[in-house]
Amino acid sequence: MDRARDLESIIVAAHALTRVAALETRNEAPAAQWRTLAILRERGPLRIGELARLSRITQPGVTRLIGGMADAGLVAREPDPDDSRAVRVAATERGEQAYAAWRVQLVEALLPRFADLSDSEWQALRTSAELLTQRMADARPANGEESSAR
What we know:
With about 150 residues, the chain is mostly helical. The chain contains six helices and three strands. It has helices at about 5-25, 30-45, 50-55, 60-70, 95-110, 120-135, and strands at about 45, 75-80, 85-90. The longest helix has 23 residues, at about 5-25. Pfam families: MarR. This is HTH marR-type domain-containing protein.
C-alpha cells in the first residue's frame, strides 16, 4: 500500500468505527448534535454561520439543530461581543456533561470488539490515535482560509 491508500484506510475505518459505535450505543440523539458539542468544546462559542461551516451542515439546518439543543439545555445563545446584532452559541454545563457521557457510552459499546487485542496491537492503536490527534489539533482549511473562531 502507498501512503495515500494507508490514509484512506484510516479515514474509512474511522467512519465505520463511529457508525458502529453510534448504532451500538442505541443513543437516539443525532450525530450532528455530538459533532456540534465537540466543535463548541474545542473552539468555544461560535456564530451560527461558522458552526454550520465547521459542522458541514446548512445554516438553516444548524439553526434548527441549535433550537432543539437549546430547548434541551445543551447549548445557550449569547450576544456576540464583537457584533451586537449577532449571536454566538456556547455549550452549557449540561451539554458538556451530556457530551462526556456520550463518549463513555461509545467506549463501553466498542471495548468488547477490541478485548482480544495484544499489548502490541493496543500500542499500535495508541500511537495511531496520538499521531492523528497531533495532526488534527491545528487543522486549518486546505484553502488557507483562517477560521474566525474564538
